[in-house]
Write a structure and sequence with these properties.
The complex is a heterodimer. Chain A has one domain: MetI-like (MetI-like fold). Chain A is 72% helix and 0% strand. Chain A has 14 helices and no strands. Chain B is mainly α. Chain B has a two-stranded antiparallel ribbon with strand order 1-2. The mean pLDDT of chain B is 81. Classes of the chains: A mainly alpha, B mainly alpha. Chains A and B meet through helix 6, helix 7, helix 12 and helix 14 of A and helix 1, helix 6, helix 7, helix 10 and helix 11 of B.
Chain lengths: 306, 324
């Protein structure tokens, strides 16, 4: 363990990270946001899920520094009288959870299909990649919206809202796997011709072992690069779905559903209900995108273009 | 070219077949055509008779073939809420969406080409750096937030522009157009800016990187050596070859704009297909939902096929290998 740590400390990876102020700042902000959101039950001033503590009379109080603001609610309250700061922290946690869950699922599907497709080649490859192409040409957003619309109608609104978190993970995972499949397949095609694969085959290892033990580790750096961007995409998709009312319910809001609930009140001047969750969402996604850009420059994998 | 076209078109038809199959299965699983046609007062026996008459008790395959046949004739079922054929409902909403997409595409094209070219030929200029930086921020802002921000600034605070609806429209042969009235154009400004904001950064980056790649190539160096004027090299020699990848990627991306119209239309209460689709979901109007899926699917497939064909036309290499 200590050996790995020393190796990491003297690596080019860490060196270029410390040389790039944008990457460092992005990383710090990202870490801060994740810490804040996951420690929400401990440090948030209120519990937005606890309906007993919410008073509708406290609704739409502006942030504390404004004239009608109340120091008890730093960022003001939303339309149901929930403390906005606490609600955002909890909402951020939901968004991050769904985003990461969706990325794990889509990576799982995508890597599996990409490996098989690249290794097997031939008709299976042509078919699987055609499916991926078609699905991508429909755009992940459209596919996600359609799947969640179908789920919503099939399960009914009540049941959908009950199981919203796992369902959203499945929806976004199903909508975005082609990215992974294409990336992995492209690097599998490159690795397949190399000697070590040949050697493994000569020793008599089965195709599954070669695929997962030998080729897979060598395809991971492009996977890592797209994973960062995919987390940002998944969080965006989740926000969009929730904004459309096809995602998290207002009682257990994510950032998207918070923005949605605040949107109607923007005309009466209550801008903060929409503004703060929106700002946080943008910062979160921006920071991940910047880190992804940096990672792509450092690892410099030959990403599948197109 | 002929063989290539046939191959692409048959592929498109195959995809349509799959989409229709998925749509049909959804309607079978969660929709109820009898409910779409009759009210609640009709008894169970009468419903059963109606089911028989409509052929809903036939085997799955038979019903699917019938569904396909009807779809080819333009009959995609009956909307439960509107009490009209679904295709009629969708077509009445289509002009709003298509106009929005059209204006946004124009905005994207006329903004991204100059910006992208400038960023490519003057990569160290402050303005290029600024637009590159702005584009990564732009990618990170979801389209509905841009839309809300625009509404807040221009409608709520400044009160310059209307925030919802299409305004006054003119009927041209069944096409409700908002492009011809001043009021309609005013209503169009904010939604089209919001919608184009999603693709603009992507296009600027795409044009910039392609153009920079072209500027590195041998023939451009030769053109410099020949002593051609700068403008000629940039705008005629280099730009032409930049366009090729931009057309293919761009064509597909403009198709994808249709997906984002759902978000934009919700924010602006724009009476288009996307808005209708979400209402259909809220009302559990399965037939309309499926019809929307089929129509939008067809739209995507047609756009992609045309883009592929154009690409095959301008780049013969694609026709031979069949891969981009």
């Amino acid at each position: 363990m200590k050996h790995y740590w020393r190796q990491f400390k003297s690596s080019y990876f860490l060196y270029s990270f410390r040389r790039d102020p944008v990457a460092v700042i992005s990383f710090v902000i990202l870490l801060l946001l994740i810490l804040l959101s996951f420690s929400a039950p401990l440090i948030a001033p209120y519990d937005p899920y606890d309906t007993a503590s919410i008073d509708i009379m406290d609704a739409e109080i502006p942030p504390a520094w404004m004239e009608e603001g109340n120091t008890a609610y730093l960022l003001g309250t939303d339309i149901q009288g929930r403390d906005l700061l606490s609600t955002i922290m909890y909402g951020m946690r939901v968004s991050v959870l769904i985003g990461c869950g969706a990325v794990i699922l889509q990576a799982f599907i995508g890597i599996f299909i990409g490996l098989i497709s690249g290794y097997a080649g031939g008709r299976l490859d042509a078919f699987l990649m055609r499916v991926a192409d078609v699905q991508l040409s429909f755009s992940t957003m459209m596919v996600a919206i359609l799947i969640s619309a179908i789920f919503q109608v099939a399960f009914g609104v009540g049941k959908f809202e009950e199981m919203a978190v796992p369902l959203l993970v499945v929806i976004i995972g199903l909508a975005e796997w082609p990215q992974y499949a294409r990336t992995v397949r492209a690097s599998v095609l490159g690795e397949k011709k190399k000697e070590y694969v040949e050697a493994a085959r000569v020793i008599g290892f089965g195709p599954l072992r070669i695929m997962f033990r030998h080729i897979l580790p060598n395809t991971l750096s492009p996977v890592l690069v797209i994973s960062t961007v995919q987390v940002a995409n998944a969080v965006m998709s989740e926000a969009a779905l929730s904004f459309l009312g096809l995602g998290m319910p207002v009682t257990k809001p994510s950032l998207g559903s918070l923005i949605n609930s605040g949107f109607e009140y923007i005309f009466s001047g209550s801008w903060w209900i929409t503004f703060f969750p929106g700002l946080l969402l943008v910062i979160f996604v921006l920071v991940i995108n910047l880190l992804g850009d940096w990672l792509r420059d450092v690892l410099n994998p030959k990403l599948y273009k197109g | 070219m002929f063989a290539f076209s046939i191959k692409r078109i048959s592929q498109a038809l195959f995809v349509m077949l799959i989409i229709s199959f998925i749509g049909f299965s959804i309607r079978q699983q969660i929709g109820d055509p009898v409910r779409d046609l009759v009210g609640i007062r009709v008894s169970v026996e009468e419903r059963e008779i109606l089911r028989d008459k409509l052929g809903l008790n036939d085997p799955f395959a038979v019903q699917y073939i019938r569904f396909l046949g009807n779809a080819l004739k333009g009959d995609l079922g009956h909307s439960f809420f509107f009490k009209k054929p679904t295709l009629e409902v969708i077509l009445s909403k289509a002009p709003a969406t298509l106009e929005l997409v059209f204006v946004s595409s124009l905005l994207i094209i006329f903004m991204s080409i100059p910006l992208g070219i400038f960023a490519a030929i003057r990569p160290r200029h402050w303005f290029s750096r600024f637009s590159m930086g702005a584009s990564i921020v732009g990618v990170s802002i979801p389209v509905f937030l841009t839309a809300i921000l625009l509404i807040y600034i221009f409608s709520v605070e400044l009160q310059w522009l209307p925030s919802y609806g299409r305004g006054e429209t003119v009927n041209i042969g069944g096409w409700q157009s908002g492009l011809l009235t001043w009021d309609g154009l005013q209503h169009l400004i904010l939604p089209s800016i919001a919608l184009s904001s999603i693709m603009l950064p992507l296009f600027i980056r795409l044009i910039r990187s392609e153009m920079m790649e072209v500027l590195q190539s041998e023939y451009i160096k030769f053109a410099w050596a020949k002593g051609l004027r700068r403008r000629r090299i940039w705008f005629i020699h280099a730009f032409k070859n930049t366009l090729l990848p931009v057309i293919t990627v761009g064509g597909v991306q403009l198709g994808i704009l249709i997906a984002y119209t759902i978000l934009t239309e919700t924010v602006f209460q724009w009476q288009g297909m996307g808005f209708m689709f979400l209402e259909a979901v809220e009302r559990s109007d399965t037939s309309l939902l499926v019809a929307y899926m089929v129509v939008v699917g067809a739209l995507f497939v047609v756009v992609n096929t045309i883009v592929d064909l154009i690409y095959g036309l301008v780049n013969p290499m694609v026709r031979v290998t069949g891969r981009k």
